[in-house]
Amino acid sequence: MGGLPIKFLKQKENLETPIEDLRKIFDINQLEKVIVGINAILANDLPKDEVDPRIPLIREILTDIKKTADKRKRHYDLYNNSHFKVIAKQYATHYIPFNQGNDPFKGSDFQGYCWGHSHRYGSLASKGILDELSDASDQKLYEIFKKNWTFADILFRRVGWFFSVQLEAKIRRAIWRSLQELDDKSILNFNFLINNTGFHSTALRMNGDGIEYYENNHGLVKFSTRENAVNFLAAYLLKQALSAGGDVSFITVYKLPYTNIVEQDVFAEVPQSIIKKEFNDEVEVEKIPHTPDLKNALDALSNYALKLRSEKYIKARIKAHEIQHLVKELYQLPAEKIKERVNSILSNREHSLMINRGTGLYFFASSFKHHSTTETLLSEIQKSCNPDLNSDSILYNNM
Predict the structure, then answer these.
(1) Segment 220-263, tens digit of pLDDT
(2) Helices (H), ranges, 41-179
(3) What's the pLDDT score for residue 397?
(4) Of 76, 114, 349, 387, which sits most exposed with the smallest number of CB within 10 A?
(5) Are 290 and 373 in contact (CB under 8 A)?
(6) Which CATH number goes with the domain that contains 140?
(7) 3-state class of 146 per DSSP?
(8) Whether residues 215 and 346 fall in one domain
(9) How many domains does the chain contain in total?
């Protein structure tokens, strides 16, 4: 099915129309073109003389494609309404709908070419042309889908295989570990198996300082932090399993053989993709008054993020970005909520702020504590939280 949805959306200047409605207009139009086109072929272009045994087969295939297009058109809302957007509203900053099932040329017996779509996403991202992303399949995409994993994938590009991940804690751990391998140049193939529905392939990459996730059955989403990406993916996988009455059996992650262009951001030219929220961590808000010790501890973490941001190493800049978002959040919370928030990070050894805790030499020098600077600064914030101090003292010391 022809047409490029992102390029279509970029042409729409009406910001009041929800992006799902714009996408529906595009998809219905494409499906109608297929139906009209096939009707014309069946009426005028196919030979009436069916001596050639291929003609009945061609007619049968075209009729099936037309019926599939008509069914998708009539039941569009049913096929394209999912929990994906609901969860995205909680954790993502941007969303563009996609659904490979909207391509009728796959036929009525279509089961999904997810592996091929993940590879095409990686290929387009590496060329800086993600605005050409499409639900449509072609011969090359189908061939990649049929090939599936190669020996090179398994031997050289494997990031992790995570089995027995039925529990949420194990799912989160697997996702955190996978994201440790995601830098500005990598594009990850994120696959999962739900035992009642089968295997599914999706993809992840860095978009600027954030994370972009492509789920070819539902859409393209962007997260401001890795923590939000983990929260989304864990909630999404659990909901998928619940809907299927099954479990997440395993998660496998590979590096796709493409180099990411991290500056590429298709959402920037599609303002309708912005997910509006009551709280926006991109906007400066008034800080809540805190005790001097807590304020100093928060400032120290903020200053450390600025130091990391100036370093040349990508992992330092990634951590700086995560810290800056966390600090903005903490400045707006009362002490008891700050303590609760920081405790949740310190207790998660897979959290992106808790990894890279130094070399073996540092391990010995730190008396086997093996803390990173970030971990130490978070611990200082934790110690400085004292909600029992009176508000007059807090206000006086923040003047």
Answers:
(1) 999 999 999 999 999 999 999 988 888 898 899 999 999 999 99
(2) 54-74, 76-80, 83-91, 114-127, 139-147, 151-156, 168-179
(3) 42
(4) 349
(5) no
(6) 3.90.70.20
(7) helix
(8) no
(9) 2
